Amino acid sequence: MPDRSAVGCPGDGSGKGGRPVLEINNLEVVYNRAVLVLRGVSLTVPDGEVIALLGANGAGKTTLLRALTGLLDIHDGEVTKGRATFEGEDLFGEEPDAIIRKGIAQVMERRRILADLTVEENLLAGAYTRRDPEVRDDLEAQYARFPVLGDRRRSVAGYLSGGEQQMLAVARALMSRPRLLLLDEPTLGLAPMLVDEVARVIQELNQQGISVLLVEQNAATALAISSYGYVMETGKIVHDGPSEKLMEDEDVREFYLGLGGEGRRNYREVKHYRRRKRWLS
Ligand SMILES: Nc1ncnc2c1ncn2[C@@H]1O[C@H](COP(=O)(O)OP(=O)(O)OP(=O)(O)O)[C@@H](O)[C@H]1O
Ligand SMILES: [Mg+2]
User: Fold this and answer.
1) What are the DSSP E strand ranges found in the chain?
2) For ligand 1, atom 4, which residue shows the shortest CA distance?
3) In this structure, are 201 and 155 located in the same domain?
4) Does the residue 184 lie in any domain?
5) Whose C-alpha lies nearest to ligand 1, atom 29?
6) Nearest listed ligand to the Cα of residue 57
7) How many domains does the chain have?
8) Do residue 64 and residue 129 come from a single domain?
9) What's the average pLDDT block by block, 10 residues per block, for the chain (281 residues)?
10) Could you tell me if 187 and 50 lie in one domain?
11) Whose C-alpha lies nearest to ligand 1, atom 9?
12) Are residues 39 and 161 in the same domain?
């Protein structure tokens, strides 16, 4: 197999080099017909891989996921340029439930579970696009995967702990039997042990053949379990590469891993500062 790491494209991290399941090309998104929030974003998720998308608050990560799952409309947003394909089929213009039926599921930011419904009702809601008779079997499969959800199947979801709610959000997404899982900051606000647990679940799902686009600010975790990563800043990809290379990258380490930082506010500022330092020295 050719060594593709030299050119730095996704698919080289794991050595599997799968064909792309998700391809985003030159995506532009505008909110309220006025604010340009994504400015020409291109990104690929190869089959069977975990791809990390890092970026500070407001970079546009959630907006990118909304564009993929047909949820921009309800936020007064619009794709104004670019293309996205899932397994070769165009995504833009499709309704959210059609996108789920194609095989994409999203775990939204801040674990948007249905707080007044029970755990089981939440899981069944995740299967609303399905008409097959195997939904019950899949429920049991989720309870086997997440025993805590099985124990609490009749509890109101709003009373679960933060970590349990995150597991429920992931389990609910799995109820649509996705081939691509989009995760929006699944470790946000979790204690370190639970962060590890979420990371383990993502790896397990990936080993079962689900491709993952993992949006995170927790770069250490995201890069540890992904094969390739992208860094987004103010609506643009400013850096990308195999995850192990990103982990060693000084700018990424300083801003995202908090190693050797000197209080700079964003990734680009770190980069500018370094460039200036190089010029001055
Ligand atoms: N519905 C909206 N209307 C107008 N502007 C919006 C809307 N939603 C998000 N934005 C703006 O778009 C930009 C990107 O927001 P987005 O939520 O995509 O960022 P993010 O990278 O997910 O940030 P975070 O890490 O805080 O979740 C921000 O400047 C935000 O204020
Ligand atoms: Mg977000």
Assistant:
1) 20-31, 35-46, 50-55, 77-86, 89-90, 104-107, 180-184, 211-216, 228-233, 236-242
2) 31
3) yes
4) yes
5) 58
6) 1
7) 2
8) yes
9) 47 62 98 96 98 94 97 96 97 94 92 92 93 92 94 96 92 95 93 90 95 94 96 94 92 72 58 52 39
10) yes
11) 63
12) yes
